[in-house]
Amino acid sequence: xxxxxxxxxxxxxxxxxxxxxxxxxxxxxxxxxxxxxxxxxxxxxxxxxxxxxxxxxxxxxxxxxxxxxxxxxxxxxxxxxxxxxxxxxxxxxxxxxxxxxxxxxxxxxxxxxxxxxxxxxxxxxxxxxxxxxxxxxxxxxxxxxxxxxxxxxxxxxxxxxxxxxxxxxxxxxxxxxxxxxxxxxxxxxxxxxxxxxxxxxxxxxxxxxxxxxxxxxxxxxxxxxxxxxxxxxxxxxxxxxxxxxxxxxxxxxxxxxxxxxxxxxxxx
Amino acid sequence: xxxxxxxxxxxxxxxxxxxxxxxxxxxxxxxxxxxxxxxxxxxxxxxxxxxxxxxxxxxxxxxxxxxxxxxxxxxxxxxxxxxxxxxxxxxxxxxxxxxxxxxxxxxxxxxxxxxxxxxxxxxxxxxxxxxxxxxxxxxxxxxxxxxxxxxxxxxxxxxxxxxxxxxxxxxxxxxxxxxxxxxxxxxxxxxxxxxxxxxxxxxxxxxxxxxxxxxxxxxxxxxxxxxxxxxxxxxxxxxxxxxxxxxxxxxxxxxxxxxxxxxxxxxxxxxxxxxxxxxxxxxxxxxxxxxxxxxxxxxxxxxxxxxxxxxxxxxxxxxxxxxxxxxxxxxxxxx
Amino acid sequence: xxxxxxxxxxxxxxxxxxxxxxxxxxxxxxxxxxxxxxxxxxxxxxxxxxxxxxxxxxxxxxxxxxxxxxxxxxxxxxxxxxxxxxxxxxxxxxxxxxxxxxxxxxxxxxxxxxxxxxxxxxxxxxxxxxxxxxxxxxxxxxxxxxxxxxxxxxxxxxxxxxxxxxxxxxxxxxxxxxxxxxxxxxxxxxxxxxxxxxxxxxxxxxxxxxxxxxxxxxxxxxxxxxxxxxxxxxxxxxxxxxxxxxxxxxxxxxxxxxxxxxxxxxxxxxxxxxxxxxxxxx
Lengths: 268, 335, 282
Fold this sequence. Notes:
- The structure holds 3 protein chains of 3 kinds.
- Chain A is mainly α.
- Chain A has one domain (2-263).
- Helices cover 71% and strands 1% of the residues of chain A.
- Chain A has a two-stranded antiparallel ribbon.
- In chain B, helix 4 packs antiparallel against helix 5 and helix 8 crosses helix 10 (310-322).
- Chain B has helices spanning 57-65, 86-92, 109-119, 124-138, 153-165, 183-200, 211-217, 235-242, 287-295, 310-322, and strands spanning 6-21, 25-41, 46-50, 72-77, 93-97, 171-175, 203-207, 220-225, 228-233, 246-252, 265-271, 276-281, 300-306.
- Chain B is of the alpha/beta class.
- In chain B, the strands form 3 sheets. A 6-stranded mixed β-sheet of chain B has the order 5-6-7-3-8-9, with helices on both faces.
- The radius of gyration of chain C is 20 Å and the shape is globular.
- Chain C has one domain (18-280).
- Chains in contact: A-B, A-C.
């Protein structure tokens, strides 16, 4: 039964994967490009820490851990759902109509319509930083920290994925405004790589509770390293990323449904 | 008696069109794309759905297939509510939009069919047998392993139709399937569709610009004009109603005065000082009788018979409906 | 995404002076880009959101360094961040590939057949584009910056005059560098590798990500021998009066030197590539 439920998606993704690796050389190029974006972003943190010892109460090792977690989560979400921001193209080419004519949920088809393996280049950058920095963070290894680490990556990826779905939903109305949506997805990614404590209060609230970037990596990093949070953001919040992921997905699905209703002419 | 496979009642679809006016103001106009359509398609029958561009054909199809919600009125397709029961309906219908591909452009057809079979959750033995039948009947074998983007239009359309029929839907909906195809590809497709309907009893809804498609594939025609029903009946009735005559085009050996007054015909045009003349004739006479009458006046070097095309039929229907037409039987005197 | 304007040069039946032809291309570049209003608004919005994050990162870094970092205090660091965001569009930090595309499709032959030199035509159109994007893409980040963190800008007039000149030179250097990059399409089928390399280098070494003055020695030494600091760090330094007087003139001279060198190399390489194209018949 379980196999029957997932089989269509497995086959869909399988065919997507095969089509990508057909052009090996160009795939390798894309992978390298994605890796350098990750490296470039880490360059910013590296340069800052050649000048200072701490940023937002985090030392270089902790900031690198924060960066690694944010990058891994974002690149995984980007790989799985990032193509959702091509919705305007899908609308123009009639791909969405084709989705509507198949016996599967439209969002599930949109998500499985691509799986950009090249974005793993950026994941690799994140994993490399994670591997190098973890021994220097002074993390106390226990079952709890391991669970938290895994939970963080899963929940963070889910939060970014939900942001991508929100961005796609907005484009049912704002067909030409793809870049408005980018401000929240890519902007959220940028904000997630830095300690939220450096932001002034209104901006901190924005990137914690509206676009919940702080829940992706910053708060879990505090919890992992057992550091106190800034006022108003106690480090136990680091355990709440899954809750935030659920909330964001509820928002994303509601938005997506409204967007689709708008497209089929059922809504306003 | 079984329920109709398509049941459309008092269907309306309004669009709000915003057009810029001046620098900042915009006017909103409401367009009735579909305006009170009612028709039923009995199971197993074939319907040609025709009309000018923008007459509301695509809008109707979108509402029948669950892509668009009606503003008012009801649609039942295969007894299902197209929007609320979209996924169930998707298993019951096959749809091809001639202008847009539903295949994966970077995959060969073989891979696309495998994926579609999985999407429709078809058992292996069932879908492979069906695929082999379609590959055979549509002659896909020579290009089934080539990525779709490298196929010719004719090959691609055949591939699309096979994709739409893989899950053996009782209802097939084709939107302009023959547009841009060469004569041979069109013919092949018509033979295939006729055969499929004979073997599987598939119901067919077809929009087209091609009169031959309608003639060969459907037993009933609906003409829409500005979202309203302009005609519902068979092709012969339509031709009778608008008097769509065939046109006899004659090339003469020497220039001749206009051939007016041949019984049962109307002179349509005289070109090249009377070297080429075109006469329209209806069902009340025959080509032989016309030729015989003409032979008494002039010597004919060459001749062709032009069949009425769908645009012309529809145009005349629109004209007769609005009362500005020339009426049945009289020549149009166009060109 | 708007593409770089190059086709449809203004119709000129009669002979024009070179200046008039150049001006016509500038105007055309300006008009072309002014039609993408929604994209411009969206771009300005994104620049501003990123500016917000970047400003707090630089303020945070200065705070962590004890209030000043390589001559930046909180206010000047935030100003740096907002100015960088305002310059992204005019200086075209993220590049363009129109020429490479025209080389690949062979359309460059059309450009070669025109009475105006292709490099001059592209340059003029790019100046028009930059002129258009300056206010709609530059003003929103600066206004939001002034409201949110405040901007530390000089009270004298001279830095702005020299700064304006420096921005123009930055646009020119950026153009000349990207022109050279684009000409690689004469020899390379797949441009993605070199483009990625160029973008990574220009993004970091221009000072767009962090001020060049914060670089560790080894990076600063690399940056010094590239044209990239001329794109962002140079105009920002001059507008904020971090560099003044003779030093400012020195920075301007460096920008001018890079532009001259790159544009001349770009000419030679383009000529060589075009000859190769003609000889091989595309």
